[in-house]
Amino acid sequence: MIEIPDSLTAWAQARLTEVEAKLAFAEDMIESLNQIVIRQQAQLDSMQQQLRLLHQRIKDVTPDETLSLRNEIPPHY
Questions:
Q1: What gap in Å lies between CA 46 and CA 54, rounded to an integer?
Q2: What DSSP assignment string belongs to 16-75?
Q3: Is residue 36 part of a domain?
Q4: In-domain check, residue 10
Q5: Is 0.85 topped by the overall pTM?
Q6: Over the stretch 1-54, which tens digit does the pLDDT of each residue have?
Q7: Does some domain include residue 21?
């Protein structure tokens, strides 16, 4: 069996600890970003619903016949 020097073992342990810390940070960041995406999706859903309601209100208020400016006689005639 090959014997690993203590300095190499200490170096490997330090690198492992560093990688574990970076992984923990990355996992925390991913969770934070996930929560932001969830919140933004809820906001988008709410805005889409509001847009649908506004569109329906506009549709209900405006007459069925849309007036064209070409059909209107200018006031000076």
A1: 12
A2: HHHHHHHHHHHHHHHHHHHHHHHHHHHHHHHHHHHHHHHHHHHHHHS-SSPPPTTTSPPT
A3: yes
A4: no
A5: no
A6: 677 778 889 899 999 999 999 999 999 999 999 999 999 999 999 999 999 999
A7: no
Residue 40, token pair as written in the block: 């933004």
The residue written with tokens 């995406």 in the block is 37
Provide φ and ψ at 48, rounded to 5°. -65, -40
Count the domains in the chain: 1
Q: Work out the end-to-end distance of the chain between its first and last CA atoms, rounded to an integer number of angstroms.
A: 107
Supply the range of the domain harboring residue 38: 31-55
Q: Does pLDDT of 71 surpass 70?
A: no
How far is the C-alpha of 17 from the C-alpha of 31, rounded, in Å? 21
